[in-house]
Design a protein that fits this description.
This protein is an alpha+beta fold. It is built from three helices and six strands, in the order H-H-E-E-H-E-E-E-E.
């Protein structure tokens, strides 16, 4: 993996961890204001704008949101695109392990994701993501 691919993958992992740790400052600094997303479990249509996601994160609206959640990106692939290498496409399966409410027994959540990041100076920022269920 090249240094740029490693930077992109690290930023992607940190963005996802920011969701599960409710780190709105990191998420805000590494996502574009006009970001878009398809989240199959929230809406049947595209969701536009960073503010929706910041509100959802602050309200704890993600499955498995817990300080003890473990986030794994399985089989990640990073593709650098564009004439200047300013665009990256990251695909992976997200696996979240978290303590089940009430029992603390490990519970699991997974989905397939595609994320598009753009370079803004020295910072990679998420511009779009798409989540799909791993099972019906």
């Amino acid at each position: 993996m090249t240094d740029i691919e490693t930077q992109v993958l690290d930023t992607t992992r940190q963005l996802i961890e920011a969701v599960y740790r409710r780190d709105l400052d990191f998420y805000r600094a590494h996502a574009t204001e006009d970001m878009s997303a398809y989240e199959w479990f929230i809406a049947p249509a595209r969701i536009d704008g960073l503010e929706f996601h910041l509100h959802l994160m602050g309200a704890g609206g993600m499955v498995g949101v817990h300080e003890q959640s473990r986030v794994d990106l399985l089989d990640p692939r990073v593709q650098i695109c564009g004439a200047g290498g300013d665009v990256a496409v990251v695909t992976f399966t997200l696996l979240v392990t978290y303590p089940a409410q009430g029992t603390g027994v490990p519970a699991f959540y997974s989905d397939n994701q595609t994320r598009v990041l753009v370079r803004d100076g020295d910072t990679w920022k998420m511009h779009h993501f798409h989540r799909s269920p791993t099972h019906p």
